[in-house]
Specification:
35% helix, homodimer, 2 domains, seven-stranded mixed β-sheet, alpha/beta, Aspartate Aminotransferase, domain 1
């Protein structure tokens, strides 16, 4: 696709202006000191916190202590003496304020997929108890795939039908036959923020139950679960909560629904008296009802230690910086990287790309230059904490991300042609954002 | 209950004989060197490997490297470069030979409870596909509770009925309406080993599907999953496999059933092409089909490191030593501890105990002496790798275990009155067994 290089060619002036501006923004950043709580490679700009958050300093020591002392020395006694048994609720309480939940409603454990299953089946059961006519499960059609797969299984096992609808269509679609609605708070491809308050209200108005997947919003922006009357929520903890690879997910069970939550995975850790070893299941009260089996303690204590970086940090301040960072990054991208025509691309973030649809322009290296355009909404109210750039030609996106990685700029790539850059205000600076955009300009063969 | 102290009063002769015998057995033990692979407190005899295995030396370094280097330095790249993505299958292959499974059939991840759910629903679906008349799920009535709770949920969600039967009655009960049978290989309370080959054959003969819970046998004795034609199996890895607190469970999917395995938890990690991010679910082939969501990597790599202790160790040698250890322990207990009358107790391992059923005899400390009797079968073919002693009076069992712990003998206690001692041949010596029995004699107020 021919690009209009004239409007993107920077002179030294915008380059210096952007670098100066970055310095200024970093000096004024009230969260700048939090960066010291993380292990960061000075040669790398890590913009993949939306996939795997950076390592907090507190984790290594904590995990080592759990292995050597709690397991190695205390052994089995650590289930009580080192607080292993109560870890899922205790760590849940650390996450609760970040997603706007009062105490006693969040528990960690299992993967996001398993928690989606618990929440969706639990939501359907409550809705059908209210009205047997509620036999439909709605899922937003841009959902992260695993939510859709698990929703399909939940629908099948509970005798419901599954229907995928665009997020914006949910309010007009939810009705007297809707049992539950499973929504992603942030679209993992485009970074678009869905309207949680509005959709939740519409679902409630329709008499159905809401389940929100917060994987790409927990730790990145205020969610307000209690304030907006969300029924169930799940989320992972290894993205903006920095819990480490595959750290346990969390489940939010709204307080006034807990006694009605009828788990499809009633393992012994959710029993009212697990050590009675009773043959009959009797569910625990509170968020404990969302537990299943024995929690993976090493991963759980790593998450607990990781959450210590939030000391003195408000999620509102994180949101303010997040928007400023992604604004800054977009500004820099527009200066440094050829911009693709919004009309020329045949690509869509959710569909396939014709490999011959974009010709590009030759770069200095003799390769076809790559142009990009942002898939992420400009409007703050519709933006999460990542910027997704669609490459043209799309089939070059993987190579672009490899080139970025080789130069120390870490983002990720999602087929068919999307480059994703996550902004974690706890450790990302404005200079990082500017640097990443500049390197992107270099590797795409754009003006430098 | 009055005890016949005369037959239990040791002279110096049996005491010396037992101590000498322990020394002799330890010198002849071909697995003695494996003990060095574990972190063990010399002041403690750890007989709770049936609940939480001891810490292998290899774990600390491996977990530290995963945190500092793989997460801290490589970050997201570790999903491929450090082999995180393939860890569930890779670690499964390390467990496979210990449970008699050829390659490509074992995958780790999730808790035992979650895996019981996958296996039972998967087994029911295959059975019902074979015959719609198969609508009953059998569970052994002495099951570990979580299996029963999860089985009930699986039955409810698939429209089956659940029936609890004694293990011995399964062959006579399984028939044309049986869909699946969920069995515990070893009874967690009594240590009794169920007849896996015989029951599996009977279930197959009835046209139903077998699901075995190997929590208390994997790593303790040969299981022979392939040889005996087991359909599905699950097990935890934190007992005799020493994987650490809450380390991920494993799932065995028999090769010729893998293509028919229809998971109730079809998360994206079980997709044929997870990074296609396709809206439609298409299951992977092989054991990968048993995966769900993102695996908890720190707990998974700890397990992988822990499994290195098996280098050069055969499960057959472990079984031989296990039986010798528990035989030796029982001999020592009979010498050192007052034996309860098998007829006098009103207690049953699965039921309540009348607190007034056993009077006991006064000990030196003025307390009521406690007598014990073994609930574990004498016959080798019916014994797992733990010895369960029923205390009389039963309500003293908790205090007895506390006194043992205070003296450095670690076992555990299960209501109403069972003391459990697990024997892990990889790190337990015959001297450990003798010492534990001697201390038990002291704290029960028996002859010393």
């Amino acid at each position: 696709m021919p690009t209009d290089n004239t409007r993107n060619t920077p002179t030294d002036k915008p380059r210096n202006t952007l670098a100066n501006e970055s310095e200024h923004l970093d000096r004024a950043d009230q969260l700048a000191h939090v960066r010291e709580r993380f292990v960061l490679d000075p040669a790398t700009v890590y913009l993949d916190g939306n996939s795997l958050g950076a390592l907090p300093h507190a984790v290594g020591e904590r995990v080592a202590r759990t292995v050597a002392h709690e397991w190695g020395e205390l052994g089995i006694r650590s289930w009580t003496e080192s607080g292993w048994w109560a870890a899922p609720e205790r760590v849940g309480e650390l996450i609760a304020p970040l997603v706007g939940a009062d105490q006693g409603q969040v528990v960690v454990g299992d993967s996001t997929s398993v928690n989606v299953f618990k929440a969706v089946v639990g939501a359907i059961r409550i809705a059908r108890q209210d009205s047997a006519a509620r036999t439909e499960l709605l899922v937003d059609e841009a959902t992260f795939p695993t939510d859709g797969y698990i929703a399909e299984s939940a629908a099948r096992l509970t005798g419901c039908t599954l229907r995928q609808v665009p997020a914006a269509a949910v309010p007009g679609t939810a009705g007297p036959t809707t049992a539950a609605v499973l929504m992603n708070h942030v679209d993992y491809r485009t970074g678009e923020l869905n309207d949680l308050p509005g959709i939740t209200a519409a679902v409630r108005e329709a008499g159905a139950r809401s389940v929100w997947d917060l994987c790409h919003s927990a730790g990145a922006l205020p969610v307000g679960l209690d304030a907006h009357g969300v029924d169930f929520a799940v989320g992972c903890t290894y993205k903006f909560l920095n819990g480490g690879p595959g750290s346990p997910a969390f489940l939010y069970l709204r307080r006034d629904l807990q006694d009605r939550f009828d788990s499809p995975l009633p393992g012994w850790h959710s029993h009212a008296d697990p050590f009675a070893m009773a043959p009959a299941y009797e569910p625990a009260s509170g968020a404990t009802r969302g537990r299943v089996g024995t929690p993976e303690i090493l991963s759980t204590v790593a998450l607990e230690a990781a959450l210590s970086v939030w000391e003195g940090v408000s999620i509102e301040a994180v949101r303010t910086k997040s928007l400023a960072l992604s604004d800054h990054f977009l500004r820099c991208v527009r200066t440094y990287v050829p911009e693709a025509s919004p009309h020329g691309a045949e690509a869509s973030p959710h569909g396939a790309v014709s490999p011959h649809s974009a010709a590009g322009t030759p770069s200095r290296a003799g390769e076809t230059a790559v142009s990009v355009r942002s898939l992420t909404p400009e409007e703050h109210a519709r933006r999460g904490s990542q910027i997704s750039l669609l490459c043209e030609p799309a089939e070059r996106a993987g190579a672009v991300m490899e080139a970025l990685t080789a130069r120390g700029v870490i983002g990720d790539f999602r087929r068919p042609g999307v480059l994703r850059f996550g902004f974690t205000p706890l450790y990302t600076s404005f200079e990082d954002a500017e640097h990443a955009a500049r390197v992107l300009g270099e590797v795409t063969g754009g003006p430098r």
